[in-house]
Amino acid sequence: MRRIIPILTFFSLLCGCSVFNSETVSHRKVAVQTYSLHKYTLEQTLEILAPMGLDGVECYPEQILSKSMPDARITPSMTKQQRDYLKALFKKNNLKMASYGVCFGGSEKGVREICEFVKDFGCENVITEDREDLLPVWEKYAEKYGLTVSIHHHKKDNRNRYYDADYLSEKLKNYKHIKGNPDIGHLSLSGIEPMYYLKALSGRIGSVHFKDQPQFGDPNGRCVPLGEGILDNKAMLAELDRQGYEGYYVIEYEEDVPSLIEDIQKCVMFLRQN
Q: What residues contact 186, with CB distance under 8 A and at least 6 apart?
């Protein structure tokens, strides 16, 4: 950990001491999916991300809480002591749990426990890829706890059809509290035009995993800093602005790269300046 912070500090100095400047765009809410730093504990992750001026983080279920609590994962099974420790970490680093996922309830009991868990942290958005027969259950508890449930999708496969914008859009018409969670990277990996997906879900987007890639349709593609790939991120931002989207723009890296922390900070800068 002692080796990471000086590197981040140096990079911040190189960029002008902060990710903010006079050209920043203040209306975008920017978060980082903590899976991007899955090799670290959540405590370390929050310390790394704190200087970047984020609005929050999207926590994923299986990350270890702290080296001092190696058996604690970010799940509803956390004890009160563990939860209090995490709440103190959020306060210390001036961050919050903006969203939680990707998670699977698996049953009504599981859905209820997840909703109770995130509400305890003041989180308002759950990201799930649960099976379709559980969507009415998610709607029930989202209404009870004042949450938005955003349906995620991975690459095009046989698990579900959530990657199909027209199909998901039709499903979402049945629910008030359930929306879509477009993952720009997974759409590109599947050869699905991200802009089409965003337009098809217009007004029904609860969260976005915002990414860029060096090639479109490459199933083995990797993320690159926003604005440095071939995806038209600026046009997608304009489309989301047109829709009046007010949710989080969640930065996520799913592969380990040597420049990971620097790349994440570049993504934050891009979202602040465009």
A: 153, 154, 155, 163, 209
Of 3.30.70.1150, 2.40.50.140, 1.10.3880.10, 3.20.20.150, the CATH number of 4-273 is: 3.20.20.150
Q: Over the stretch 181-201, which tens digit does the pLDDT of each residue have? A: 999 999 999 999 999 999 999
Query: Of 34, 86, 36, whose CA–CA distance to 56 is shortest?
Result: 34
Q: Is 203 left (phi over 0), alpha (psi -120 to 50) or beta?
A: left
CA distance linking residue 21 with residue 17, whole number of Å:
10
Kindly compute the dihedral angle of the four CA atoms of residues 75, 56, 98, 224, in this order, to the nearest 10 degrees: -90
**Who's near 69: CB < 8 A, 6+ residues apart?**
82, 85
